[in-house]
Amino acid sequence: MNIEDLSKELSSVVIQNETELEQFRIRFLGSKNILKDLYAALKDIPNDQKRAYGQQVNELKQKAEDIYASAKAAFSVSQNQSQKEDLTKPATDPNVGSHHPLSLIRREIVEIFNRIGFVVSEGPEIEDDWHNFSALNFPPEHPARDMQDTFFIEKGEQEWALRTHTSSVQVRVMEQEKPPIRTISPGRVYRNEAISARAHCFFHQVEGLYIDQNVSFADLKQTLLFFAQELFGEQTKIRLRPSYFPFTEPSAEVDVSCSLCAGKGCNVCKYTGWLEIMGCGMVDPNVLDACGIDSKTYSGFAFGMGVERIAQLKYRVTDLRLYSENDIRFLKQFTPGVS
Ligand code: PHE
């Protein structure tokens, strides 16, 4: 074999498996390799050609070493892979994500009210003054309209606001439908608050409305007791404290007995045994009339709660900001049915 033939051979060599790799090694790099004859022939080469000849043989050797090294590396990668992967192993579950804790709680609240005949209604987040305030009996100078609480949007002649509660949806329902009305309105609401662990500039509510003939405060109380027991457990008690809302009269704040300490007192209920969860009251006759429902024939009750507040109690999340930061380590802790 001369240099030229070997050079051609190296240029066209194909190594397909480990056996071929070993054959290649023995032929070009082994202890009795074919290049040795070429080196041995050096002594018969005329002196003036020795240098060029030696260089050519060295190049051949280098080429053979390179081919060997790269083929070997390629085989060892594929070998590692086949050792790592057990093809009989069941496939790993795709990462399907999880439901947001607020969605889970909202769904739970909605389902409880669905069971007693309340249907969901939705409305716009950008509202006019009428639906967010005026129809709900807010006098023009009421402090809740103040810039501190409400995000106002100026567009042309009209002033718009980001709704501060989903009571605005209930106004729309009352304007469009005739009693009996039984509806709940889940949705996002906005208030102009500095963001902290305990307050945010947006949060979520579920508000409810029931209007028919002869609806009484006793109906309201019983409905809320049913709701509280479905959500927090059969042993749950409720208590109503007098309060004020422009759109209800009388109005009340609803407390549930603390589900964590069973009313004995703990740091979540601040040692009172009670947790405030919502506002409620009998719909003010002014509101019914403003929405085209005759307040002499019909009466109704309304209530509204914050979804974050309920989630905080059920999941013991103390920092409101976690709900909107989308940190996957937080979100993946919540799975349906676990509360
Ligand atoms: N709309 C009130 C709020 O956002 C809650 C509420 C609704 C109170 C219905 C009473 C009756 O705070």
Indicate how many domains the architecture comprises. Answer: 2
Bound molecules: phenylalanine
Rough outline: elongated
At the fourth CATH level, what is the homologous superfamily of the largest domain? Bira Bifunctional Protein, Domain 2
Overall helicity: 25-40%
Strand content: 15-25%
Which CATH architecture of the largest domain? 2-Layer Sandwich
Total beta strands:
10
Uncertain runs:
none
- Classify the secondary structure makeup into a structural class: alpha+beta
Distance between the termini: 81 Å
For the biggest β-sheet, the strand order reads 1-5-6-10-9-8-7
The topology string of helices and strands comes to HHHHHEEHEEHEEHEEEHEHHH
Q: What fold name goes in the CATH topology slot of the largest domain?
A: BirA Bifunctional Protein, domain 2
In DSSP terms (H or I, runs of 4 or more residues), the helix count works out at 12
Q: Any idea of the CATH class of the largest domain?
A: Alpha Beta
Largest sheet, strands/sense/barrel: 7 strands, mixed
The residue-averaged pLDDT reads 91
What is the radius of gyration computed over CA atoms, rounded to a whole number of angstroms? 39 Å
